[in-house]
Amino acid sequence: MDKSYILSVIRDFAEERLRVESSNWYWAHDYIQLKSYQKWAVKEIMKCIVESEGISPILAVEDFVHKMNCFSRKKGKTAMIFSIARDTGEDILDVLIAMK
């Protein structure tokens, strides 16, 4: 699969799944924080795909998920951020695998 096509699929995924719904504003802080971390993860995943020369996009995303899983296991305030990034990466990986 062409990288530009995969990036457009990921953009579509992000647009659909990471939209901030106005009906959820009452959860404001936690909800916006979650969406922010998910959007950050999508940008990082797309960067990994673009920068991965000679590696399939699926392998690039698998590597991202593995790194985020390792970081999420460390204690501290950042564990949640990395677990959200891991989950987002797994969702994108499922989409890419389904496209095969």
Describe the structure.
The protein has 100 residues and is an all-alpha fold. Helix 3 packs antiparallel against helix 4. It is globular. The N and C termini lie close together (8 Å).
Q: Summarize the helix and strand pattern as letters.
A: HHHH
Shape type: globular
- Could you name the ranges where pLDDT drops below 50 across 5 or more consecutive residues? none
Amino-to-carboxy terminus distance: 8 Å
Based on helices, strands and strand pairing, what is the structural class? mainly alpha
Task: Please give the number of β-strands.
Answer: 0
- Please work out how many helical segments DSSP would assign: 4
Give the mean pLDDT: 89
Beta-strand percentage? under 5%
Specify the biggest β-sheet.
Answer: none
Using only CA atoms, what is the Rg? 14 Å
Question: Which features would summarize this protein structure in a list?
Answer:
single chain, 100 residues, mainly alpha
